[in-house]
TrEMBL record, chain A:
The lineage of its organism: Eukaryota, Sar, Stramenopiles, Ochrophyta, Bacillariophyta. Pfam families: SF3b10. This is Splicing factor subunit.
UniProtKB/TrEMBL annotation, chain B:
One of its GO terms (cellular component) is spliceosomal complex. The keyword Nucleus applies. It is found in: Nucleus. Residues 570-896 form the RSE1/DDB1/CPSF1 second beta-propeller domain. SUPFAM superfamilies: Quinoprotein alcohol dehydrogenase-like (SSF50998). Residues 987-1018 have a biased composition (Acidic residues). This is DNA damage-binding protein 1. Residues 1037-1355 form the RSE1/DDB1/CPSF1 C-terminal domain. It comes from the Eukaryota. Keywords: mRNA processing, mRNA splicing, Nucleus, Spliceosome. Belongs to the RSE1 family. Belongs to the DDB1 family. Residues 959-1028 are annotated as: Disordered. Gene3D superfamilies: YVTN repeat-like/Quinoprotein amine dehydrogenase (2.130.10.10).
Amino acid sequence: MSTPGGAPIHKDQLKAKYIGTGDADMSKYEWVTNMHRDTLASHIGHYDQMSYYAVAQNQSMGRVKLEFIEKMLQPCGRPPMGSKEEGKEKLLNN
Amino acid sequence: MTSITSAASMKLLDVRLKHAGSIIASTIGEFTSGCTSSSNSSGGTQEIACLRAGGTIDLYRIVISQPFTEKVGDDEEEDEEVTTSLQLVSRIETRSTLRTLHALRVSGSKRDVLVVGSDSGCFSILDFEPTTSTSSGSSPGSTAAKLTPLSSMILHSSPFGKVGIRRDTPGQYLGIDPRGRACMIASIEKRKLVYVIHRDSTGKISCASPLEAHRPRTFVYDVVGVDNGYDNPIFACLEVQYEEYEDMVLAEKKRKKEEEEDEEIMKSAGKSEVKEDVPVGQYGDGYTKQLAYYELDLGLNHVSRRWAITTHRTACCLAALPGGADGPGGVLVGGENYIEYLHEGMVPPPPVPGADGDGSSAKIIPKRMICAIPRRELHPPNKGILITSLSVLKQKKGKFFALAQSELGDIYKVTLTLPKENKTCVSGMTICLLDTLPVGNTMNISKLALLFVASEFGDNGLYQFDAIDIEEEAIKCTSNDTITAFLKSEMEEEDEFYSKCEAVAKFAPTFRPTILRNLHKVFTMESLAPVTSVLVGELAGNEVSPQIYTLCGRGPSSTLRVLRHGLAVTELAVSELPGVPGAVFNVRDDTIVGGGKNGKFYDRYIVVSFADATLVLSVGETVEEMGKESGFLLTEPTLACSALGVGGSGDGERNGGIVQVYPGGVRHIQRGSVSQWHVPGIKKIECASANESQILIALVGGELIYFELDPMSGNLMEAGTRDVGTDVCSLDVGVVPRGKSRSLFAAVGCRDSTVRLLSLAPGGLLEQKSSTALGTTKPHSVVLSNAEEGELTLTVGLDDGSALRAGVDPITGAISTSPSRRFLGARPVAVSRVTLQGSQSTLLLSSRPWIGRACNGHHSMAPMSYAPLDHGCSFSNEAVRDGIVATSGNTLRILSVGGDSGGNNASALGSTDDESFNSNRIDLRYTPRQMCLLSARVAETTRKIVLAIVESDANDFGEEDKKAMGFDGTGKSKAGSKKKESKDGDDAMDMDMEDSGDEEEEKKDGGDDEEEDDEDDDTRLTPIRGPVPAEQGRWGSCIRLVDPANACLTLDCVELNRNEAALCCASVRFHSRGGESLLAVGTVTGMTMHPLGHKESHIVLYRVVNGERLQLLHRTKVDDGPILSLVHFQGRLLVGVGHIVRLYEMGKRQLLKKCELRGFPTMVKTLQAAGDRAFVGDMMQSVQFIRYDATSNKLLLVARDQSPRPVTCQELLDINTVAVGDKFGNVSILRLPRGADVGAIDVTGTRALWDYSREDATPKLETLCTYHVGEVVTSMTRASLVAGGAESLIYVTVTGRVGALVPFTSREDVEFYSSLEGFLRAEAPRPTGRDPQAYRSYYAPIKHVVDGDLCDAYAQLPYDVKQKIAEQLERSVGDVLKKLEDTRNALL
């Protein structure tokens, strides 16, 4: 890939500029984390969706919003570790 | 809905019936002051700008004083009751998803502009400016209550990024430099843009391209502009940075390794201790929340991260304190249980005097200026209370205070102690409880001692402060107490101590929420949000048109609201008359010197005319019958009467007396003496009309005679005659415009089906100016009115029950060529002029009473929610400003329109479409979920319709538990118990917070409250959220039976206990039980949301006994999942259980399972049935059609949808078509293609099971229409809003909008609307820079739906653009507007 001027763009550069950019070596965990972050951000931005959740949970919207942003830090928990998970992840990626 | 389904391709028009009530964010400022001559002339008028869900920006002006005060008579205002209201000044449709807004005052400017953050990827600044400031205040009609036409100007709208709500698209947060020099617009993650705002020499605002202050992998919680005097602007951001993925993996590996090592050590030591992970979002989870200052260096034109400090881990909101010369600067940070003060270079809090003595000096010196908030008595100690919004008011002389609201709704006042010698450092903080209000999104404090709270759910309120210096006696906590508590504790780390909820619970003072003590409500802005269910039907039993029943609200503010189209009417008096009257008139009172208060005239007499007599009633304290002393001729009917003269002077010189026209002549009553004019010959006067100076009478045969008041002599002079050649049905001479001596035109309705306009100008007296033909029908009544300044309108009531309205040229007298005609009812229409809210309106009486009004530049016609009336005219006295006196049968009624006389009038009449519905509210106990109609047998033959509502609240206790805990939801605990409680509370406090003096103070308070209870009870009532359970999975729930025919009184209410929650209900008629309508309720016990789980679920069956009581028949336990939907299906009950649909038959002890269909994708959310088909809405995967095969007793999948839609509601349009609303705010209409089911359905039922799961084997539904409403649609129903009208799809949204999707009935309409929409997409202003078409195609391209809101924007366009579009549509501007109006009228 290159810029309109012709200078090549490195993958890492692209990733840094556009958050959530994927690549072939991306692990499933990383991809899912990105998806969840996008979804949560969309929920936070749409007031109507926030109120839908707030009514369902019977909590204030401020609390729901805080919980959603906090959830964006680790939407899918910690990265999977250990031999078993690692193997599984590799399997899924292949 | 034949018209929908018969057309091969369906086309719908989206019409908004009621605006969304929710306010996303609001800001206070002076947006228009200096440009308007509003009643409040001292200083600027404060206005509140609100972002409404659904893409509307509303500007409300705070109006204090009598709502309709004229500018004259200011001196008399003192003795009047002051009312405060919010008056809609301007409304902007943005057609985008709005997120935040802020007022911005550019330095040197006199008023504020509005900065809006939306999904458009544009930075937009809006300015409100009045267009026509010339006409204000010069006419009798224009008062403060009238809308000044305001146009918004888009000052700046520059794109900076992608459209949409992405995590890195700025627009979620706005920080404004308090001096108006710069503005930061931030996204949730990473991106922050800073715009420097300039003002050029002409005062125009401009911005340069933005400066970037990005920080990778950083989530922002809040942004605020720090008050920094005139130093470089600084923005404070609350943010958390997360690690990079690679680092995360490395850290995780390291952690795992350490853990394993630890485990081994533990094992070798023989202990088995499991280290628990700290959940993300709490202290110790590995992330730090920082408050960072971003400085914009104006010299270098560059933004840098200047300073950052770790703050409370749960912090979520910020507020900037006044700085520079006015205060200490810095920000308040609100988090769980605490509010902290932070500023760069702040000094640590001074040592606490009390804490030094107990030997803890060895501990580290506390650095943080932090203060705990008082807690609720019943709040569990392991749960924190989050501060969700903060707001600061800068007062005069460098004083200021802040208000904070918690997630429970409690409002706290935050005051900072500043030492006398140095006003820039903070030495202490006090937080005291102010009151409990509904939980708000934002709070705006006005300088006029008002507080506006934009509630998350339920009505928004404007509150007046009764007391604000409450530090002495209120329940409070200080920073000293907090720091002392920390020093006393054993903990080493400040952060650790402040993150422990149990620690706060130990030392923070507690209180019990009560009614409002320091505030009272002065104005309510209605909001239906959230609406969970809607039902349309004429259930009241005695009304003409159907009502809309909506389930609204959440928790303690839950209501059932009955919406009726039209204006609310209050009946003030009803009295019997001796006969059936033929007409009613009012006569202005001229006797009061100065013309009454505020230049307004009250009425002196009500004149009622009968067939052979006249009754004169005098209006005073009471309405009394007058005898001969009134001077009226009482033995003849009255055709017209009026007070003469300019009036108001009262000195008799210009007082012209009263004129009465009776069939035999004209009688002029002047200060005791009576002069008469008799009709020459045997002719009789057929009809007549009179105003202050002109009288026009028509004799049988069509001879018109015109009289005018001679202003010098005060006598009536015959001025001219004319023969029109045909009998005259009705006459009107119009009103005398203010400042003029006569009305220039008279309207004459003739029996030859024409209405003629005659000139009354001295030049061409009684000369015909124009005429209009009415076709076959005859005019019943005519009225000329000038609703707006300089505009003349002719309204004709016709014999066939319709009304015709046409504009009249005020100079030439030409009647406009495109009159609008509307059918009003089954009786001839009687028209009269009335004054409502200070503006000229028309009262149109047919089989339904209507009010026609001009507002916002266009005419609106609304029915009154009242019984039919025969005759009416306006009425006003001291108690009733703008009333109507009317007759119905042989009764005389005095009515007031627009709700009660409270502060709500303005909202009821002020806006264009919100007033078109009036609502009745019935309070409920918990959040309502669903409702259904039941037909209950009352006697042998009679049946009664009752409404069953299921209510349930998650995260709450049931009624009994609450009682046992001593919680009273009304807050109106008796003074005695309150005193006791407060004592108990004091005992419970471990600190000597309140000495005995305070306690006495409180006792006195209690006494005061009780007195106030009696006085203005309802302004002090506030919904109070019940105690929060300590653990998940607690529910409060009940099933209610309501009688819609009897003002929606509750007949029965069954409380469910044991954490059981009723989530759905349906009426079911089991064939095996003879078709009796039973209530089936699906309940879930102990349901938790995160993770989704429950203990057990039941189907509970109730019988309605006698139409008034619920009797439990039996309960059936159901396995496999929660029940979210039930439906009656072919004499059985179809139930959605988790991902299974199951058919039940009624048994003696319980329901009997007949058959089931498994394998729905996630969970069955909605169910509907028609014939042998059922329609299943899945929580994630859209709709499936299933069919019941009776021979093989099997449920079979017929078809499914192609696209995944998270269904929230559905409505059946016909057996092949279903409308679906999804979680993203879209409405789609899906249809089974013709014949698609024939081949696919296996009639024999022998098809192998595995075939069903094959995707390609199942027919797919076709998408007919797609439309992005912009708000989550929670319920839809197919109904007509007028009796006998065409059906449309009525939908409601979670933010309180009511809308309708109306099917087009003709090809022409489709073409007209499609092309109009096309033009408007290009021409309509885009305040946020969002493309309307792109917005309506948010998730899927818009298909076959015309955006009615966008079409309505036509009326607001400048005239030349209107003209251009109209030309392209080959119509006139008036025709286009009429067409738009007609469509709406056809619906309502």
